């Protein structure tokens, strides 16, 4: 959760439910979920998934479509630095002119990490920027 006077952001996670999902494997490694690449838990069945990204700006709700987070799994909200101190890089940023909001999440994992930034302009979801494939 991120909260300020005018903005509230909540990232809600839930247990991964394989259910009717199509799980494509190469050997013993999971490579696609529902015929799409996925991020987090590389090669393994995920434990958790994002079920909702909730954004309130003032009294208005900003709709973040499920396609913006449906392929993000096992989100680690914190990590331990070299001194074993628990930290987070997750934050909400605003452009200098205040017209854009950036919701940034870094999920660090020994098997590969990913970072995602959701971009909101005005009170409308614009796009996401995703980087992956780096390790801790």
Summarize the structure.
This protein is mainly beta. The protein has strands at residues 2-3, 7-15, 23-26, 29-33, 48-57, 60-62, 79-80, 86-87, 91-94, 100-107, 113-121, 124-134. The two termini are 23 Å apart.
Please characterize this protein's 3D structure.
The structure is a single chain. By secondary structure, this protein is mainly β. The protein has strands at residues 2-3, 7-15, 23-26, 29-33, 48-57, 60-62, 79-80, 86-87, 91-94, 100-107, 113-121, 124-134. The strands form 4 sheets. Strands 1-2-5-6 form a 4-stranded antiparallel sheet, with no helix packed on it. The two termini are 23 Å apart. 21% of the residues are buried. The mean pLDDT is 91.
- Count of strand segments: 12
Radius of gyration, in Å, reads 16 Å
Q: What is the percent of helical residues?
A: under 10%
Give the distance, in angstroms, between the N- and C-terminal Cα atoms.
23 Å
The strand line-up of the biggest sheet is 1-2-5-6
Write the layout of secondary structure elements.
Elements: E1 2-3, E2 7-15, E3 23-26, E4 29-33, E5 48-57, E6 60-62, E7 79-80, E8 86-87, E9 91-94, E10 100-107, E11 113-121, E12 124-134
Antiparallel strand pairs: 1-2, 2-5, 3-4, 5-6, 7-8, 9-10, 10-11, 11-12
Features:
51% strand, mainly beta, 0% helix, globular, 4-stranded antiparallel beta sheet, 136 residues
